[in-house]
Amino acid sequence: MATPSKPRLLVATHNPGKMREYRGLLREVPYDLVSLDDLGITLEVEETGDTFLENAWLKARGYAADAGLLTLADDSGLEVDALGGGPGVRSARYGGDACRSDSDRVELLLRNLGETAWERRTARFRCVIAVARPPAEGDADVASVVGSVAGMIQYQPVGDEGFGYDPVFYLPSFDQTMAQLPVDRKNRISHRSDAARRAVAVLERLASSKSG
Question: Which fold has domain 8-211?
């Protein structure tokens, strides 16, 4: 007897590195994961929200409607308490056109923090994942989950294993920056892996309710 094929889950990303990460993080869910590139989707959903949650829902709903598939989308970034939670949703666009690389954005972050005392340099990486159905299946919104990892922003970048703000994101429990951790260890403690673990429970419940 042929094994029934698993339903598809669209992971709303063009980034092959992020897709590889999600294939590992969601390896236990009863879905066949596909990316935007796998489906040839060129739609660009604008991230016009003021929060990670709003942007995650914009992408999940938009791509679910376009692809006609259950869709998982995320939005994430760095929140620094001494900067009022910034750069937040603008983490990837911090500094606008004046910052053309990760190192430019890190330099701007450190410049804006200046000589802020160590105990006030608290920060966190936050990731919000939203899961949405296509409109044809009724209520589009399935669930959203949040993951985070807390740390401190140190005064100088250290390490070359990560990307983005990883070189200045210090983890007291490891006495290292995120960029000094091996990739497999980082993926076990990251904000995205924290959110993905919660998403696994959502997706398993959803699959169970459909098969029940």
Answer: Maf protein (3.90.950)
pLDDT tens figures, 19-58: 888 998 899 899 999 999 999 999 999 999 999 999 999 9
Our answer to whether residue 102 is catalytic in this structure is no
* Domain edges within the chain: 8-211
Q: How far apart are CA 23 and CA 6, in angstroms?
A: 15
Give pLDDT < 50 ranges for the chain: 1-2
Cα(62)–Cα(43) distance, integer angstroms: 9
At 121 the three-state DSSP class reads: coil
Average pLDDT over all residues of the chain: 92
Q: How does DSSP assign 6-68, residue by residue?
A: PPEEEE----HHHHHHHHHHTTTSSSEEEETTTTT---------SSHHHHHHHHHHHHHHHHT
Intra-chain end-to-end CA distance of the chain, in Å:
21
What pairs with residue 34 in β-bridges?
10
Considering 37, 50, 66, 75, which one is annotated as catalytic? 75
Q: How many residues does the chain have?
A: 212
Q: Are 178 and 124 in contact (CB under 8 A)?
A: no
